[in-house]
Every structure is written in C-alpha cells, then in structure tokens.
Design brief:
The chain is an alpha/beta fold. It has twelve helices and 21 strands. It is globular and about 70 Å long. It binds ligand LLP.
C-alpha cells in the first residue's frame, strides 16, 4: 500500500498535489511519501517481532540522508557496500553497531574506515579478503567481527542481472568451501568469527528460495558449532520483491512467518537487509512531456526524464507503471515513453496504453523509490534530479536539483591547454 492516490482526477502524494510540487521545484523530480516509507519500514521490522533481529536497510537502494534518518529513528541499521555508504550512514546518525558491510571488492580504505567506526560485522566474500581484513585489523590493533557471505547455490527465480546466490555469480563463498574457510578465519588473531551471511538476489516473489537457503545455512551453523565456532548472527540479506505490475510477492508478514517457523535457533540474532520492499513503492519519478512524435511505426511521448534518472527499464527491461498526474479522460493511445538521451535504450516504458499528453503536462513513473535516484548519473551532462519528501500536507526538498556548475565540479584544464 502506498500514499499516491487520485483525488478529483488529480494525483496526490499524501495530501499534496503532485503538480504543485512539480510547479515549485521543476521536473524531473523524485517524490517520496513519508507515510509510505514509515509504514513499510514498520511493517517489515514489526513482522519479525518476537525474534531477536536487526533490520539493516540496504543503503544502495536509496541513499538519501533524510530517508536514512527516518529509518534510524525507527531503530534501523544499515547494510553498506562502500566507504561512501558508511559515510552516509554515519551522517544520517546510524549507530555503527548496527551496520554490516558486504561487497566483493572492499577497498583497504573502506576496511580501515569501518574498523575505525566500529561497525557490527564484515560480510566477507573471498579468502583473500579474509586475509586482508585480518592484516588491516592487526595493523590497527582491532579485532574484526566477521561473517562469511555464503553462496548457497539457490535459484532465486528472478532477473539474471539481480540474482546473486547461484554458483555462477561472483558473490560470496561457495557453501561447500565455507567450513574450511571459516576454520582459516577462526585461526587468525585479528578476526572474530561471529556470523553467517547470504543474499541470494533481488525482487524475489516466492518464499521457497529464502527457506531453502535458510535450511542450508542452519546446517552450516550447526557444523561450525561442532568445530567450536560460535555463531551469534545469521544475516539473511534482502531480496523481497514488490508489485511493479502484476507480481504477487508475499507480504512481509508471510515472509517473516516462514522464516520464524524455520529458524528456531534462539541464541541467534537475525539480520535482515531489506531495500526495495521498503522504499520501492514509496517513491515516484515525476516528468514533463516535451513532445509527441507520431513516427511511421510508433508513437513516442518524449519526456524530460531519461535513463540517467531511472536506468532500470534500459538495464533490465523492467516495468514501471505510467500514470497521468491529471487524468484528462482522452482516449488512450499506444506509445513508447522515451527520454532526451542519445541512445535507443533510453526508454522508460514501451508500447503502453496511455492518455495522450499535451506538451508541458506531467506524468508519473511509479515504483521508482528503489534503485531510482541511487543509480542515476550525469550522462549527456544532465544535472541529477531533485528529491522531495512529502509529509502530510507539506513537502520538503531533501536533495537539491544539480546545477550546470555541479556538473563540472572537480574538473580541471591543465596548464598546457591554457
Ligand atoms: N543486501 C545485499 C548484500 C545486496 O546486494 C542487496 C541488493 C540488498 C541487500 C537489497 O536487496 P533488495 O531487498 O532491495 O532486493 N539494481 C537492481 C537491484 C540490484 C540488487 C543489488 N543488491 C534493480 O534495480 O532491480
């Protein structure tokens, strides 16, 4: 459920007309509903009540400081994959003791920064990283709490680009090799084996891959216990899907119930790293129609948002709902919704039945709150969009629109060219 609804044929975010925000801050524009963000975080976190757990929002999904702060105030932690994400988490006021660090290519600087900050746990993804973490921690006189991110070889049944728990994926350490590598880690002075972690993929619409994974991890935890390694944390990663079109993913309550029924290991603290399920449907991308072009084969609605603002359709051919900001009642036409970028892959939707729009009329690209702004770029020297949060009948700019000056920040012309 979200808080983007029509009142008198006009799209509102909570109690604010979307067109009002667009008029005041311009387009393209990311618009988030505070009530939806809060509701989704609480629904997810609350579903795990009764078991010791920590909800670590996956920061790559939406990294805006205001949004992170909202989750911090709800007791949330964070899943980071870079020094930059750690910086954001700390700036948003996140407790270091609630931060876990995943990623196949952690830099030494990132390891040092995280050790200095005192994060909860490193989810290590290769034997070389185990040795590097031990070395860095040793130099700093610290002991690093760590888990091995296990690759359980479970098919998440999602888009191949976002599946991560299969043998052919670059992520984690093969589950069959994990016991041996845990033994190596346990023998290193500056590491403290604390957890087992995994993340099998994103936009999962079935529970069974999570449960298959959980069963494999439980077996591993028992085996490690027999070898004298005490596991305190079981990190199940993120991955729960949302409805973009007609998908019917399980409700967080069902997901949590299935996990709680299966886990039954009372000494463990469960870590969850949800992302999409919390912010995906809490944000939209608002864009203005620039032109309509009736070509021989197709009709194109050319809008002022593009693949640099929302790359998901171009990259994964993913579906985002397209809705008018004001319902005109005009007879629908079949059209491609495309941006101004010089690439044929620059589309937001293909062959959709939409109301025709006059130049200047607004359109909403739905379900854009996850992997939307956070994956945006400056391609074609387009300043990145503005981000706005609505709360009740007010709205707040949470990231200013970039300027042309921002585009060239840090660039320099060497003397020999002057
Ligand atoms: N934990 C780890 C270690 C991850 O790599 C990810 C996402 C998550 C948690 C959060 O997963 P979620 O709950 O959002 O499914 N850009 C793609 C998705 C890439 C997923 C990357 N990892 C997209 O737009 O669909």
């Amino acid at each position: 459920m979200h808080h983007f609804n029509y009142i008198d044929k006009e799209l509102y975010c909570e109690q604010v007309p979307v067109s009002k925000v667009a008029r005041e801050v311009g387009t393209p524009l990311y618009l988030y509903s505070h009530a939806t963000l809060l509701r989704h975080f609480r629904a997810f976190d609350g579903a795990f009540s009764g078991v010791k757990h920590l909800t670590c929002f996956s920061i790559k999904v939406n990294s805006n400081l205001a949004i992170l702060r909202l989750f911090v105030r709800e007791g949330g932690g964070g899943d980071i994959v870079s020094g930059g994400e750690l910086y954001r988490a700390l700036k948003a006021g996140m407790e270091p003791g609630k931060i876990v660090y995943s990623g196949v290519g952690k830099r030494v600087e990132g390891l040092e920064y995280a050790l200095k900050s005192g994060i909860l746990m490193f989810n290590v993804e290769s034997i070389q990283e185990i040795l590097k973490l031990n070395e860095v921690a040793g130099k700093m006189g610290k002991k690093a709490r760590m888990a091995i991110r296990v690759n359980p070889d479970v098919d998440p049944k999602t888009h191949p680009y976002i599946s991560t728990g299969l043998k052919e994926n670059k992520f984690g350490i093969d589950i069959s090799e994990a016991p041996e590598q845990y033994t190596v880690a346990a023998g290193l002075k500056n590491l403290k084996v604390s957890g087992v972690s995994c993340h099998i993929g994103s936009q999962l619409t079935e529970i069974s891959p999570f449960i298959d994974t959980l069963r494999k991890l439980k077996k591993l935890i028992r085996r490690l216990g027999q070898s004298g390694m005490q596991i305190d944390y079981l990190d199940l990663g993120g991955g729960l899907g949302i409805t973009y079109d007609r998908e019917e993913p399980p409700h967080p309550k069902e997901y949590a119930r299935a996990i709680k029924e299966e886990i039954k290991m009372e000494d463990l603290t469960l870590i969850l790293e949800p992302g999409r399920v919390i912010t995906g449907n809490a944000g939209i991308l608002v864009t203005k129609v620039l032109y309509t072009k009736h070509a021989t084969e197709k009709t194109f609605l050319i809008v002022d948002a593009a693949m640099n603002d929302l790359i998901r359709p171009s990259l994964y051919n993913s579906y985002h709902g397209i809705q008018p900001v004001k319902i005109s009642g005009r007879e629908k036409i079949k059209a491609d919704i495309v941006g101004p970028i010089c690439e044929s892959a620059d589309f937001l939707a293909k062959e959709r039945y939409v109301e025709p729009h006059e130049p200047g009329e607004l359109m909403a690209i739905m379900s854009a709150g996850a992997y939307g702004f956070s994956m945006s770029s400056n391609y074609n020297s387009r300043p990145r969009a503005c981000e706005v949060m609505v709360k009740g009948d007010r709205f707040y700019i949470i990231r200013k629109r970039e300027t042309f000056k921002d585009l060239v920040k840090g660039e320099m012309i060497p003397d020999f060219l002057s």
